[in-house]
Inverse folding.
């Protein structure tokens, strides 16, 4: 498709509309897998016809109608299946359905879709692929490209996830009041993983369609819009805004990693920081402080410091203390130890890291060695720091990070050796 | 997380391969082809390639002016890459299971016991999960 303004408009419109239309079709036919196929076919047909003939008067109605017709065709072509409703009845149902489509119903459907795609019984990889496709409106090719796998592989991953939903009888409806908290946690976790995947793997400062961080932020903003009263959804969106604000400064021209303390803070996106802080300030006083709000608060303290030296470490330490009491996550305890070192000196941090040494979840994790190396360097024990920088480099699976760790080890080694000239 | 599953052979093993009985050879080829198809259906396939026999393999180094200096004499004991798979899975254990499947490719009775497969993680930033 040519990249003229009409096609760009069509692409954006389809991305926005397909999840809404999918919601209506699933609600009507109760068959997610078939509905998903029908909506994808309708979107393909729309891309072709709209690009040729221009936009229809009501694009959503157009898409809904075509998707409904595909469902009817599919039911009709399925000889083994008893036609439960006549075509005329379906047509009437369709007319009624889209005439009755009000915004509130659309929003409920989109949220129900999100809950369905992030169901805890799906593996993270399945939930991620399905969410990007069904709620994010990305094409299989775009998702495959983002994860650097062939399109056929991603198509199968999505189709297996749909099959899983069917087999486990996951219903298309809003979770009950008692289910809501764990189900929402599962949704937030999926969105968080998508964001992190994009954030840790991309180099450039630009965000665009198809970029996983961009899609995660778009979906989380949507979830926040749909669940404005939930402080943790707001917390996650704030966390993404406050973290992503540093994107332009976190890598150098060759894609090398620049640690927080050495970043050029004038490159940080001030607008995004202000938006994140405003969102968080509104969410925090509402009472139910959760881990995403705390993480966002930590990111905000970093973002508010004019220089690394001016960072309010006692505040960060207090926040990690709260976070540590909330979850038994070794990564939180590791970050807590680093914050403690910034407040009480490197030896205090090393002492806390020692208590993590026996945690099997951190065995072979490079972060423990990397943190120890940093603190040993600050404590003046360069010989030991070199050993741990190298050990961390040997364990990480992230190339820019390995380069960074090896560079630190090399820098300390060359300082130790007497200069040759 | 992506893993590369590497299958290496000595020169002697490559030569023995050319003399496998037809039915074992056919079964082996069919197995390798089916493997890629199965991995795609499971949603984990990224890439797979087989490499040409090492008879024409060359070691290349840059000479003083950067021009290639080739060397084709290898010790008999050296192992050569025969082929690889790249899979995108959720855990190292899942990669090991796939490697074990690949290791069980049909082979003559004298070679039973599984081909060794080296499993290596590909450098890519896996999401850190602080929560």
């Amino acid at each position: 498709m040519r990249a003229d303004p009409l096609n760009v408009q069509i692409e954006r419109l389809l991305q926005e509309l397909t999840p809404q239309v999918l919601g209506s079709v699933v609600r009507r036919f109760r068959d997610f897998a078939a509905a998903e196929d029908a909506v994808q076919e309708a979107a393909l047909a729309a891309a072709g016809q709209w690009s040729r003939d221009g936009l229809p008067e009501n694009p959503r109605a157009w898409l809904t109608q075509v998707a409904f017709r595909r469902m009817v065709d599919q039911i009709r072509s399925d000889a083994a299946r008893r036609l439960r409703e006549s075509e005329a009845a379906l047509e009437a149902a369709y007319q009624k359905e889209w005439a009755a489509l009000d915004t509130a119903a659309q929003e409920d459907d989109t949220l129900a879709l999100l809950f369905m795609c992030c169901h805890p019984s799906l593996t993270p990889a399945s939930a991620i692929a399905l969410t990007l496709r069904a709620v994010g409106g990305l094409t299989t090719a775009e998702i495959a490209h983002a994860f650097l796998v062939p399109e056929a592989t991603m198509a199968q991953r999505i189709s297996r996830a749909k099959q899983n939903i069917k087999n486990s009888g996951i219903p298309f409806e809003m979770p009950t009041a008692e289910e809501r908290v764990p189900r929402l946690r599962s949704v937030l976790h999926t969105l968080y993983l998508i964001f992190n995947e994009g954030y840790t793997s991309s180099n450039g400062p630009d965000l665009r369609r198809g970029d996983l961080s961009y899609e995660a932020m778009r979906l989380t903003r949507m979830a926040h819009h749909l669940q404005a009263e939930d402080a943790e959804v707001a917390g996650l969106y704030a966390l993404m805004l406050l973290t992503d604000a540093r994107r332009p400064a976190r890598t150098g021209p060759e894609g090398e990693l620049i640690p927080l303390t050495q970043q050029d803070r004038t490159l940080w996106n001030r607008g995004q920081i202000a938006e994140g802080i405003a969102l968080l300030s509104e969410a925090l006083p509402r009472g139910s402080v959760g881990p995403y709000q705390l993480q966002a608060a930590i990111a905000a303290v970093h973002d508010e410091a004019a220089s690394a030296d001016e960072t309010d470490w006692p505040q960060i330490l207090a926040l990690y203390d709260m976070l540590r009491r909330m979850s038994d996550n070794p990564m939180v305890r590791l970050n807590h130890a680093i914050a403690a070192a910034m407040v009480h000196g490197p030896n205090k941090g090393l002492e806390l890291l020692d208590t993590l040494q026996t945690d099997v979840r951190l065995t072979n994790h490079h972060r423990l060695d990397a943190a120890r190396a940093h603190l040993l360097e600050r404590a003046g024990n360069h010989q030991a720091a070199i050993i741990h920088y190298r050990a961390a480099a040997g364990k990480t699976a992230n190339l820019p990070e390995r380069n960074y760790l090896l560079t630190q080890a090399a820098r300390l080694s060359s300082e130790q050796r007497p200069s040759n000239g | 997380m992506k893993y590369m599953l590497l299958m290496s052979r000595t020169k002697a093993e490559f030569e023995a391969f050319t003399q496998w009985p037809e039915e074992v050879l056919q079964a082996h080829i069919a197995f390798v082809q089916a493997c890629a198809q199965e991995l795609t259906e499971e949603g984990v396939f990224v890439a797979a390639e087989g490499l040409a026999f090492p008879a024409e393999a060359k070691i290349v180094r840059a000479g003083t002016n950067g021009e290639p200096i080739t060397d084709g004499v290898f010790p008999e004991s050296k192992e050569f890459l025969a082929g690889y798979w790249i899979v995108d899975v959720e855990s190292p254990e899942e990669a090991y299971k796939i490697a074990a499947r690949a290791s069980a490719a049909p082979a003559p009775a004298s070679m039973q016991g599984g081909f060794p497969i080296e499993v290596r993680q590909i450098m890519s930033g896996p999401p850190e999960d602080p929560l």
The mean pLDDT of chain A is 88.
